[in-house]
Amino acid sequence: MSERDLIGYGGTPPRIVWPNGARVAVSVVVNFEEGAELQVGDGDPVSERVGEIVSVVPEGVRDQGQEQLFAYGSRVGLWRFLDALKRTDTPATFYMCGRAVERSPALARAISDAGFEAACHGWVWRPHADYTSREDERRDLDRATRAIEAATGQRSRGFFCRGSESAWTRELLAEAGYLYTSNAFDDDLPYDDPSGLTVLPYNLDTNDMKFFHPNGFVRAVEMVDYLRDAVEQLLAEAERGRSSTLSIGFHLRISGRPARFRAVTEILEYLASLEGRIWRAQRIDIARHFAASSHAAPMKTQQGDLT
Question: What are phi and psi of 10, to 5 degrees?
Fold first, then answer.
């Protein structure tokens, strides 16, 4: 069997107090993937099939419709997000694919100039579990890191790829000077990885990809209500001394559409109204605060031993 940690903090998570005195840290994440999705027209063997509709273009043929659905995010959605984030004074982390940045460096620069974290989302929008060679993955990681730094002036310290990491991803990230990875869906708090990285979990349920899932959101209000339920639950637990983090994931091409953008504006306004009860922060700041905390090291437990 594979080695898996099914215990984590074992029911006694560290009681982290975030910098503003709150026990709930909330991070807004915006994914910048446009131009980095797999497309036959860009020389990839296949085109991305997950989009506003399921692609019906034959495999191996250029899918201009899917290209245009992605392009909406960078042509229109980005500017809606930058405006809303500014109006609500919301800190945010942008997960940037290297190829998207290389193709549209002015857009990446606009994000950085607005004061947002430029984190790495891989070279293209694909699972790093696809890599069969450590060297191939290292090459693409370095390529993405350089592209983001060249366009934004920021050296990425955080990472998240689509789907799953490979067996080598965390070691490569640590070697490249990264501080945290977010390919983790198994906790409400960060924890330490043997690679030396901080693992900052990411939430897929409070993510607008659920607009593309048959069992997900249909109307904007459904995402707003779901997110509000999550925050209210964490705040109730915080009153009993429990600390937590929560990420909210958006995509330029998904929530950048007018009907769904109502979810973005209402969520950002709601979070702003909770100032002091929650800590709104970029993911790098959450990772750094946790790493500096005296509670950063997870409790030592053995499988089956919760004492």
Answer: 60, 35
